[in-house]
Amino acid sequence: MNSGNVPMYAFFDPYVYQTLSTIVGTNIVVQTTQGSLRGALKTVMPDHIVVEVSGTPFFVRIQEIVWVSPAQE
């Protein structure tokens, strides 16, 4: 292995992806390993989600998600 190459690994959790795909457009709370976010779930991709908080998109890796819950209005 060349010392200049770094192996990249992508983990795909089909259950999380499928479940989150059903609630796109709703307000959610996401607990990550770094803290929590509350906002609108805009996009779900196999490796990340996009949560919009006060007009600002936050890209969260699915690997970093601890739990997700619909936000209480």
UniProtKB/TrEMBL annotation:
Protein known as: YuzF family protein
Species name: Halobacillus yeomjeoni
Domain of life: Bacteria
Taxon lineage: Bacteria, Bacillati, Bacillota, Bacilli, Bacillales
